[in-house]
Amino acid sequence: MKRWRHFTVVVGIIPALVIYVAMFMYIFEYVTGYFWLLDWLIYIIAGLLWLYPAAKVITWLANNEAH
Among 28, 52, 22, which residue's Cα sits nearest to residue 40? Predict the structure, then answer.
């Protein structure tokens, strides 16, 4: 199987995103609802925070599959 990294990424990233969303849903119960601007800030940060690790994984995949 030449492209085992694709399978590894799919199997790993989907559960990781589900755990990430569940974790932030739990956190949002306690930190939101006080002030609308704070809510927006928290949602924007949480929405963008997952991009850094996902970019690292995609870069790893692209670098190793380019050969």
Answer: 28
Q: Which two tokens stand for residue 35?
A: 């002030």
pTM of the predicted protein model: 0.73
45: tokens are: 């940060």
Residues in the chain: 67
DSSP secondary structure string for all residues of the chain: -TTHHHHHHHHHHHHHHHHHHHHHHHHHHHHSSS-HHHHHHHHHHHHHHTHHHHHHHHHHHHHHH--
Q: 21: which 2 tokens? A: 């969303």
Nearest one of 11, 7, 4, 9 to 59, comparing CA atoms:
9
For 42-67, how does the pLDDT look when each residue is reduced to its tens digit (9 = 90+)? Answer: 999 999 999 999 899 889 888 877 66
